[in-house]
Write a structure and sequence with these properties.
Number of helices: 14
Bound molecules: iron/sulfur cluster, FE2/S2 (inorganic) cluster
Strand order of the largest sheet: 7-6-5-4-3-2-1-8-9-10
Number of strands: 10
Largest sheet: 10 strands, mixed
Shape: globular
Structural class: alpha/beta
Order of helices and strands: EHEHEHEHHEHEHHHEEEEHHHHH
């Protein structure tokens, strides 16, 4: 067995319930209902086990974590066991009283999603009228509460032309940090690839806009940039490498090496209802399967660039989607025998309609 360092971060998907319906949601296509969710005591035990294992940060995520009535209790427990708590939220349903209670319970950071700079267009992407106004109010509350604020703007073909305005809006909202993240094409985003995938010109313009903003806003706001895989020649180390730095816990307690791992056939997911977190991280099949480099096939096994421990062969879920084999080299890599599938997929999308995220049967709107 490979010697394993403890994970640094835990993404706690407290629920799949969410008032928004973003067409690039990173949750799986099959969403878990409220009755499947772990209860308060189970999550608190998980946070205690995570702290004992060596986890430093917990990201309270979803869905929308604010729909959990016990969120303050969960935040308080995580803080009591020494975890740095970050709330990843749409901002919908955040009010001053709730935010004060969360801050008093030990919440240390808020990450707010932003769909667009234009109210009507943002509401369309979020699939909810009034969403953008609610976000602006939420950002203001976070600043008044004195908590650090990151704005997360997911960008794609239908909002990239307003990237400069999105950056200026993040400044106006008082963000300490802006993450401009291109859509990555798994789950709901893969389903909506035709409506979301930008062309090369849009990508180059966006990259230049981010570089200019970084220079202009130095000392005012940090701007991070997540490039889209489809226009790259080398894959990213997805999740920092499988089972190396982070774990995801789904609402039902399944522990995943990444948010899409439940789609990999034959991967034996362990659940916190049945196993201690320490055993799951160190010994379970799901985490051991693609850890390290021994599982690699060619061309990764004899990589011409020696990048096996730099990118860890890329993304397993993307390899499954595009090469039909989760153990294959990520087709984003130019050495992959399936790289032509990524090149072919770079053709910009042809449609504008979204299939919105839904817990019911998806409909095209
Ligand atoms: Fe990375 Fe594998 Fe491509 Fe080498 S062959 S660059 S290890 S994905
Ligand atoms: Fe699963 Fe990249 S999303 S490994």
């Amino acid at each position: 067995m490979i010697a394993v360092e403890p994970p640094l971060a835990l993404l706690a998907e407290l629920t799949h319930r969410c008032p928004l319906r973003c067409p690039y949601c990173s949750n799986p296509l099959e969403l878990a209902g409220a009755s499947a969710e772990l209860g308060t005591a189970a999550w608190q035990r998980v946070f205690s086990e995570a702290a004992e294992l060596g986890v430093l940060q917990v990201h309270f995520s979803g869905g929308e974590p604010l729909v959990r009535r016990d969120l303050v209790e969960l935040v308080r427990h995580a803080a009591e066991v020494g975890l740095y708590g970050n709330l990843i939220t749409s901002g919908i349903r955040l009010d001053a009283e709730r935010l004060r209670a969360l801050a008093e319970a030990g919440l240390e950071h808020v990450q707010l999603s932003l769909q667009d700079s234009e109210i009507a267009l943002g509401d369309r992407i979020a699939g909810l009228a009034g969403a953008q106004e609610a976000k602006r109010r939420a950002a203001s509350l976070v600043r008044q509460a004195g908590l650090p604020l990151t704005v997360n703007a997911v960008v794609h073909r239908q909002n990239l032309e307003r990237l400069d305005e999105i950056i200026e809006l993040a400044v106006a909202l008082g963000a300490d940090r802006l993450e401009v993240a291109h859509v990555q094409y798994y789950g709901w985003a893969l389903r909506n690839r035709d409506a979301l995938l930008p062309d090369r010109n849009q990508l180059e313009t966006a990259t230049a806009a981010v570089e200019a903003a970084r220079a202009r806003l130095a000392g005012v706001m940090t701007v991070d940039y997540v490039l889209p895989d489809y226009h790259a020649h080398r894959p990213k180390a997805c999740m920092g490498g499988w089972g190396r730095t982070a774990m995801v816990i789904a609402p039902n307690g399944d522990v995943l090496p990444c948010q899409a791992a439940s789609t990999i056939p034959g991967l034996e997911l362990a659940n916190v209802r049945e196993h201690p977190l320490e055993w799951i991280w160190n010994e379970s099949d799901a985490f051991a399967r693609f850890r390290g480099t021994d599982w690699m096939q060619e061309p990764c096994r004899s990589c011409p660039l020696g990048r096996q421990e730099v990118d860890f062969g890329g993304c397993r879920c993307q390899a499954l989607r595009l090469a039909g084999d989760a153990a294959a080299t990520d087709p984003v890599c130019r050495f992959s025998p399936h790289h032509d599938r990524v090149v072919a997929a770079r053709e910009p999308g042809r449609g504008d309609d979204f299939v919105y995220r839904t817990m019911k049967r998806p409909a095209r709107v």
